[in-house]
Design a protein that fits this description.
three-stranded mixed sheet, 18% strand, seven-stranded mixed sheet, disordered C terminus, 310 residues
Length: 310
């Protein structure tokens, strides 16, 4: 009962603020930047540790500028996500512009019905679900991990599905995608694949942002099992409140690729996207909390993969 009351209060607050024009929301973002960065110092130790490890050659001055730029963007991300409660489909598609939806249309004409789309916590990933509605006659699915707070979990589900997309709980991913493939449902499944794997899923390691990193392999396993085309979503922030996404085909024949090849391609493409402008990645995440010694299962790294291909 309390979670329902909490949700009603939170959603009402979000809805009221979402009615504000973007220029006013960005004024609030500037205030929020001061609160979360200058006053609260939200996860500032994590951000600094991540940035210093990723860019050991940068000076203290360069790192601090990157840090400030990140928190400015993070504040923008928050108010932009709030705006999802009221923004029109036309406006969000204009602001999060999908440059080449015809790639999926072409693959569908070739007989494919279900696709794996890989992206990261870069730019504004929340706005992208609306952009994908540009695909012809396709259902959009997002893999998500339910939040512990039921009120906030319900809020994010409502915001993310407002334009007709669907959510798939992480634990139901394989079952639901198999069913989509079996039914021949025209569908696009979005994975945010730059998160840290759980301790039981440290299967593949590769250099990523100057650190030995374990990469999620679940999306590759599903793609290879069901032979689903895999596409990387290359995101750019054009200016405040405007993003573009270019879809880049990783493979249309995943069953023919070596194990972990798709995962390695994703890691390299995601890294390139981040390095283009690091401030727009989610540096607050504890991305490198595990080491190879924490692995509970046999692991493979990119050097082993390269030897297997020779």
């Amino acid at each position: 009962m309390w979670s329902k009351i909490q949700y009603a209060l939170i959603y009402s607050w979000v809805k009221v603020h979402a009615l504000l024009p973007m220029r006013v929301l960005y004024i609030l973002s500037d205030i929020l930047y001061v609160l979360i960065y200058k006053i609260a110092g939200y996860r500032i130790k994590v951000v600094r540790r991540n940035m210093q490890a990723a860019f050991p050659d940068k000076s203290e001055q360069e790192l601090r500028k990157m840090e400030r730029d990140f928190y400015h963007h993070f504040a923008d991300y928050i108010v932009e996500t709030i705006k999802l409660a009221h923004i029109s489909l036309e406006e969000v598609q204009r602001r999060a512009f999908l440059r080449n939806p015809e790639l999926v249309d072409k693959l569908m004409e070739e007989g494919h019905t279900c696709f794996v789309l890989l992206m990261g916590h870069y730019g504004n990933w929340e706005w992208f679900s609306a952009s994908t509605s540009r695909f012809k006659d396709s259902r959009i699915y997002q893999i998500y991990r339910p939040l512990n707070n039921l009120a906030f979990d319900r809020l994010f589900i409502r915001l993310r599905t407002r334009f007709g997309s669907y959510g798939i709980k992480k634990k139901d991913t394989i079952r639901d995608i198999i069913q989509l493939k079996k039914d021949g449902t025209r569908s696009v499944v979005i994975f945010l694949a730059d998160q840290t794997p759980s301790a039981a899923n440290l299967h593949y390691w590769t250099p990523f942002l100057n650190q030995d990193s374990s990469i999620l392999t679940g999306s590759e396993r599903i793609a290879r099992k069901l032979d689903l085309p895999v596409i990387f979503l290359d995101t750019r922030k054009v200016k405040r409140g405007y993003y573009t996404v270019d879809m880049k085909l990783i493979t249309s024949t995943p069953k023919q690729t070596p194990e972990f090849w798709i995962t390695e391609q994703y890691a390299r493409m995601m890294e390139k996207c981040i390095l283009r402008n690091p401030a727009y990645w989610l540096w607050t995440h504890k991305r490198w909390k595990y080491k190879r010694s924490d692995s509970l299962v046999p692991i493979v790294d990119n050097e082993t993969l390269n030897k297997d291909e020779e």
